Amino acid sequence: MNEIPLTLAISRYDHVEDLTAGRVVPEGIRLTALSLPIEEIFFRFLKHREWDVSELSFAKYASLISQGDRSLTAIPVFPSRIFRHSSVYVRRDGPVQSPTDLAGKRIGIPEWAQTAAVYSRGFLKHQYGVDLKSIDWIQAGVNEPGRGEKVKLDLPEGIRLTPAPTKSLSQMLVEGEVDAVLTAHAPDCFEHGHPNVRRLFEDYMAVEADYYRTTGIFPIMHVVALKRDVVDTNPWVAMSLLKAFEEAKRRSVARALEVTAPRFPIPWCFEHARRAQDLFGEDHWPYGVDANRTTLEAFLKYAHEQGVCHRLLTPEDLFPSQVLSRFRI
Q1: Domain of life, per the record (predicted)?
Q2: How many CB atoms lie within 10 A of CB 38?
Q3: CATH number of the domain where residue 140 is located
Q4: Residue 329 pLDDT > 60
């Protein structure tokens, strides 16, 4: 078989490093990999489609699919996953001391369709009973003014979303113009140690572990998207890439569990990895649809409720049929 050339843009992750460095080779594919900042990848791929395969915001991808965009498809590879209770920032002297205090307040978000914000609003509504329509939502860049939405929204009636193009969320939080910020990227005021800014959930690891035990949701932030014509022309490409990403991840997990000579400059890193397996199972960062159905369905429900997705999708709407199931021996 002649190898087909494909270009891939993805951030630097240890669990994809063996693929992007060429130590894992997807069958039948000659891959050129670009490692770029995630915001740049999203912007350039959504605006210009500069490469064949791209890491992409889960929310933006799902939104496009829900609007009938047929230019993209994806494989169930999830390079970024992170719980988002840790991503709620408040003022120490402010009116928000608990999650239920967020009702009726002014809350800043970088984009309504940011994946992290979708999950955060989802747990506020479904875990803590916060009415999203009671909140004044302020949209602005986290640390720079001028950020805007990347996809068309279908906001529910009663949602109040106001752009603030001349200020950053970090500035507004410090100045008390917003009571809280929900954001994937920590605001500068928090990163630089502002004494009056803190996480709402300061013991977030315990809160997030309990959330997982209760719901089974391990939030997916990013997917790996492909130009649809690549898969239409060569349907086998989807599974070839999925298997290569799986192998790269397997090698990374093996490195994390290495006891004799730890591969990462983090004390007890192998014990952290083992404890993750105790909580999440042996494959504690699963790819594929079946192993992630609970998370996928919860996210798609939240995205539709919040007007990021224009219709309620199923996991099967997101991925080509070739990767929805695997052969077994």
Answers
A1: Bacteria
A2: 20
A3: 3.40.190.10
A4: no
